[in-house]
Amino acid sequence: MDVATDTLSHLNADELREMVQSLRQTVSFKQATIDKLTHENALLKRLKFAAQSERFSAEQRSLLEETLDEDTQAVHDEMAELNTEPIPARVKDQPKRQPLPAHLPRIDIRHEPDVTTCRCGCQMQRIGEDVAEKLDYQPGVFSVERHVRGKWACAQCETLVQAPVAAHVIDKGIPTTGLLAQVLVAKFADHLPLYRQEAIFGRAGLAIPRSTLGAWVGSCGVQLQPLVDALKADILTHRVVHADETPVQMLQPGHGKTHRAYLWAYAAGAFEDTKAVVYDFCASRAGENAKAFLGTWRGSLVCDDFSGYKQLMVQGVTEVGCLAHARRKFFDLHTATKSPVAQRALEHIAQVYEIERELKACSAEERQRGRQEHSKPLLDALHAWLLLTRQKVTDGTATAKALDYSLRRWQALTRFVDDGQLPVDNNHIENQIRPIAIGRNNWLFAGSLRAGQRGAAVMSLIQSARLNGHDPYAYLKDVLTRLPTQRASLVHELLPHRWQPQT
Questions:
Q1: Number of domains the chain contains
Q2: Fewest Cβ atoms nearer than 10 Å: which of 163, 381, 452, 496?
Q3: What is the pTM of this model?
């Protein structure tokens, strides 16, 4: 007889039952831990991580240099707007502008006075002209616009008349609005950093230095900001707003390293008439950022379970949960373990989404009636099943966590049933934030907080233009042309969802 058997032989029945119960609890705890780790390991295997390196590569250096050029020009332009006195030239020595290459095709655009009859009644004579050249770009082809402004003089009273210089988004700059729109769309929609654009332009016949491109981007960012502010104000007039956030690396000044910043996205409700999204670049994921953006707005906020949104609910904002997030918990569980609990939950939720597809084109009132008649019974049955199943599941397991997420947020997740204007999930804003995730692979990082905010502003206009079915290039080209002469009180006419191209 071994030692263990001898020990057990001296225990009475009660002690044996107590030992068995203790062993069962230990086994149950260890099995739950194994299941949890197995689930997490399966999720990690599904994720694809980019190579991690703290080396400051040549490619990263190029991105940093162009960001500095953009920031420097933006600061200079902002100072010029705030100061009526002449702004001294930047400390950096400015090279003398070289003439545009003679081999590029020229297109003459003539500007003559509407009237060439002098006040004294004499017919003026053309005595000369001023020529200003601006660089234009069509994909793969450069051309030069020659703006010829004729000079007309009266021989009798020596009066001189000339057509005025048209206002331009970059005063005395050489790029046309078409070239500026191309640079912005390539950088913020096609995710091409300026050093890559420099090479592309070189193949087209003129390698524009990235420092020059950076200065153009910085100036455009300053000019477009009032339009983005108006877009934000328009979104906050709606009762339903979507919100989400995604991480973006930002360079820490003076450290040569990056830290995690966040790009927040806000959009009018999926069932609202206004199709618009605004990105807000912030140095952290703190809830104060969402609070600062929304300000005094009080409505229904569609968001995930991130704690940063919770303080908004205390101040009167109504929380609307995302059923897709709840479904994702069960989907991950089913993918990792083939759990029958997860499968049944997915089947319940699929029925709700089927009803939503049928009601998508209905009015808010019809949608609410349909949800009350069809969705509410399904959700009530699902809730009862979740509660019953949770009582049978061990705490700490992946199954328990999936169940707890839905049960803890049940009121927010089902709020859409009583309001036909509320969406069933937050997929609308997640679709708008997806291009940012694609761009991260090309940006590597934001060179500064200002650079991140500038990029967020331009991307807000580009993505909103896409939402309204506009070509971002055509939209930005037209807006940059009209913006310098647009009255501040009418800037809302240039918002993507209100924009009408000039005929």
A1: 1
A2: 381
A3: 0.77
